[in-house]
Design brief:
By secondary structure, the chain is of the alpha/beta class. The protein has one domain: 2-enoyl-CoA Hydratase, Chain A, domain 1, CATH 3.90.226. About 50% of the residues lie in helices and about 15% in strands. It is built from eleven helices and nine strands. The strands form two sheets. A six-stranded mixed beta sheet has the order 1-2-3-5-7-9, sandwiched between helices. A hairpin with a 2-residue loop joins strand 1 and strand 2. Helix 4 packs antiparallel against helix 10 and helix 5 crosses helix 6. The longest helix is centred in the middle third of the chain and has 20 residues. It is globular, with a radius of gyration of 17 Å. It starts with a helix and ends with a helix.
Length: about 260
């Protein structure tokens, strides 16, 4: 299991003011703690780099944007502090996106589950392909979408968030996610999506950096307490993951 948790990578590059951050893990781009930490650090670093005007956040592969938490790592959690630290990984990525002074474009080429929906919700402008269905599966494995909840609810509202959280085993289509406001546009193919991202990112790279910074501040007004809020939510999940109910549910889900 240790080998699986050590796999994956986060890469970044800068070209003409556009920073591209890409993450990968062989298990459907799931995010073990090590990758979550790298992702949060990279977002923060790019936010501070004066050469960067706009950020594109994406994952490798075709049909899976992000499978959320690593089940192998979840099963291995045996104390509340370890659980809190793990779930704080998602909190740190969301807060890194929130506090980054640069606008972040999200590129969702495939399915997003749990924490993956949280990441898609934490960017400032998110586009997707028709393959980018969404699901908050946390309740089905004995926990809940507590850490990603504030980001998802901010983006799609309480009603749609509740639907995803309660009907935890059902996928909602990319078009559903667009209707609810998670995606701004849904494309037939990754090629079409990438052309649109290139056009938008180029426009933003030549826009006034200070105007974009102030605009982002306005977009995220009212979330200043999220550093503390998401820590509290991480503690909720960290406690729940220790229960026999949750461990059994995760094992059943993993073995399906």
């Amino acid at each position: 299991m240790a080998d699986i948790l050590e796999q994956g990578k986060v890469t970044s590059s800068i070209n003409e003011g556009i920073a591209t951050i890409e993450f990968f893990h062989p298990l459907s781009n799931s995010l073990p703690g090590k990758l979550l930490a790298e992702l949060a650090e990279t977002i923060t670093k790019m936010g501070k780099d004066e050469a960067v005007k706009v950020i594109v956040l994406k994952s490798e592969g075709e049909r899976a944007f992000c499978a959320g938490a690593s089940f192998d790592e979840l099963i291995s959690i045996n104390d509340i502090e370890t659980g809190k630290v793990f779930f704080s990984g998602f909190a740190n990525v969301i807060n890194a996106c929130r506090k980054c002074p640069k606008l972040i474009i999200g590129r969702v080429q495939g399915k997003a589950v749990g924490g993956g929906v949280g990441v898609a919700s934490a960017v400032d402008y998110c586009v997707a392909t028709k393959f980018a269905a969404v699901k908050l599966s946390e309740l089905a494995v004995g926990i809940g979408p507590f850490v990603v909840g504030p980001a998802v609810e901010r983006k799609i509202g309480t009603s749609a968030m509740s639907q995803l959280a309660i009907d935890a085993t059902e996928w909602q289509s990319a078009e559903w996610a667009k209707e609810k406001g998670l995606y701004t546009e849904v494309y037939e193919s990754a090629e079409e999506m990438d052309k649109a991202i290139e056009v938008l990112a180029s426009k933003l790279a030549s826009s006034n950096p200070e105007a974009m910074r102030l605009l982002k501040q306005i977009f995220w007004k009212g979330t200043e307490h999220w550093d503390d809020l998401l820590k509290e939510r991480a503690a909720m999940s960290g406690e729940l993951v220790l229960s026999d109910f949750t461990k059994n549910a995760i094992n059943k889900f993993k073995n399906k």
